[in-house]
Write a structure and sequence with these properties.
With 291 residues, the protein is mainly alpha-helical. It has eleven helices and five strands, in the order βββββααααααααααα. A hairpin with a 5-residue loop joins strand 3 and strand 4.
Length: 291
């Protein structure tokens, strides 16, 4: 069924609309500088423009997720002298020949099985609660709020809701990109899952387990000197955008900054646990490029 959507640029109600791809009624409209609306389907992620553009060559162009991603810094933006410095630091770091922690590999294998499509629906509540509280791979922070909510709701109801969060993050809807599913869970837009679990650190930790060759165990986009944004600045002297409610959403930035760091360091230190150790060490080394 079609519903009244956002208003037109002139303030009048928009004609009956629905997503042209999935027919969902769950849509948002964001006014654009040229008087059109950028419509976003919260169900499948489809975006389209509505209305007539006001001709004004001085106005910026409308940005979509693809155009934003194209503007996000890439590894090629790192200056040559900084690449040389980081290469020297990597050589110094690897002199000690650090070895991957075998406990991490066992932990990843265990939770890859539990969080698989086949295993998620029966993942035991004690294992899921342990995952949230464990500091193996990375420490997600204070879990007192989650533990209180878990106790209040009871383990059966709580684990069902956490499974719902993980299933939405990892497996669907496939038409909605991972980075936007991540945003929806963090911001609570869909009312899905276990709110105390739907935090950036825990959801990122899930990705670190399931996509262990892609996701570095750095659990927040921005956090003092320990977030991905800060590490990129301190080690590679690149400025990343702050998170915002529109366009530069937390899920997009968390995903794109992870992939940026992965491309910068992952191939030289293939084990991403060690790569993160290197980044956390390198960001504290003296340098001359900081302002």
């Amino acid at each position: 069924m079609l519903v009244h959507g956002p208003t037109e640029g002139n303030g009048n109600p928009m004609a009956l609309i629905a997503c042209p791809k999935c027919n969902s009624e769950d849509i948002n409209g964001t006014p654009q500088p040229d008087s059109r609306l950028l419509i976003h389907c919260n169900e499948c992620g489809t975006e389209w423009l509505r209305g007539e553009a006001r001709r004004d060559p001085g106005r910026p162009a409308v940005q979509t997720i693809d155009s934003l991603h194209a503007e996000f810094p890439t590894a090629s933006a790192v200056r040559h002298e900084i690449r040389e410095r980081v290469a020297l630091l990597q050589s110094e770091f690897l002199l000690d020949r650090p070895e991957p922690d075998p406990e991490v590999k066992e932990y990843q294998a265990r939770y890859q099985e539990l969080f698989s499509r086949e295993g998620l629906s029966t993942a035991p509540h004690e294992d899921v609660l342990h995952f949230a509280n464990s500091s193996t791979i990375a420490n997600p922070g204070n879990m007192s709020g989650l533990n209180r909510a878990w106790k209040t709701q009871g383990p059966d109801k709580a684990v069902h809701k956490v499974r719902e969060s993980i299933e939405y993050l990892l497996y669907g809807p496939e038409s909605l990109r991972l980075e936007d599913r991540l945003t929806q869970l963090i911001e609570g837009k869909k009312g899905l899952g276990f709110p105390s679990f739907n935090k950036e650190p825990l959801l990122t930790k899930v990705l670190c387990v399931v996509e262990s060759d892609r996701w570095l165990p750095v659990l927040k986009y921005s956090a003092a000197a320990d977030g991905k944004k800060e590490i990129v600045k301190l080690v590679y002297d690149l400025d990343l955008p702050p998170a915002a409610k529109t366009s530069w959403t937390i899920g997009r930035l968390a995903t794109w900054s992870n992939d940026l760091l992965r491309s910068l360091v992952g191939n030289d230190i293939p084990d991403l646990q060690l790569a993160t150790q290197f980044l956390n060490w390198a960001k504290n080394q003296p340098t001359t490029f900081r302002s």
